[in-house]
Amino acid sequence: KKGYVMRKCCVEPNGKKTPFGRRGWKMFYCTLRDLVLYLHKDEHGFRRSQMSDNLHNAIRIHHALATKATDYTKKQHVFRLQTADQAEYLFQTSDSKELNSWVETINFV
Ligand code: I3P
Fold first, then answer.
1. Residue 75 CB–ligand 1 contact under 6 Å
2. Nearest C-alpha to atom 15 of ligand 1 is from which residue?
3. 19 CB under 6 A from ligand 1?
4. Residue 11 burial by CB count (10 A; 0-12/13-18/19+): exposed, middle or buried?
5. Three-state SS at 98
6. What pLDDT digit, counting tens, does each position of 45-103 carry?
7. Which of 11, 51, 64, 103 is the most exposed place for a label (fewest CB within 10 A)?
8. Using CA positions, which residue lies closest to atom 14 of ligand 1?
9. What pTM was estimated for this model as a whole?
10. Cα dihedral angle (34, 35, 38, 43), rounded to 10 degrees?
């Protein structure tokens, strides 16, 4: 699965709250492949980059959980991603269909 999303970091992989200054929303082109969510500036990022570049901003989703962020009311169509290494992110998608599609794809790959 692929597509543009907005991402906000909430908790770092060490379980500590993401510090102020790095908690903003940022747009990424997201590619889910082999249990890794690759985040690039645009849709050309993946092909252009070396694999080592692709791993920058990548999120491993093995044993991760995606859930609709019903408690986050500032934006619509947002899901929360909790990873095995205790990081936590919010992702905003374009509509409810995309939201469900991302959540199901992440949870059932
Ligand atoms: C954050 C940015 C986020 C905001 C976050 C701020 O500042 O304004 O948009 O989250 O609030 O800390 P910065 O870019 O300097 O990190 P919301 O959009 O969800 O309000 P937060 O610390 O309450 O998460």
1. no
2. 21
3. no
4. middle
5. helix
6. 887 667 777 888 899 999 999 999 999 999 999 999 999 999 999 999 999 999 999 99
7. 51
8. 24
9. 0.95
10. 50
Higher pLDDT, 23 or 52: 23
Cα(31) to ligand 1 centroid in Å equals 25
Report the C-alpha gap between 100 and 17 in whole angstroms: 26
Q: CA-to-CA distance for 101 and 97, rounded, in angstroms?
A: 6
Measuring CA to CA, which residue among 57, 71, 65 is closest to residue 102?
Answer: 65
By alpha-carbon position, which residue is closest to atom 23 of ligand 1? 23
How far apart CA 68 and CA 43 sit, in angstroms, is: 25
**ipTM of the shown complex:** 0.96
Query: Among the atoms of ligand 1, which is closest to the Cα of residue 10?
Result: 24
- Which atom of ligand 1 is closest in space to residue 19's alpha carbon? 16
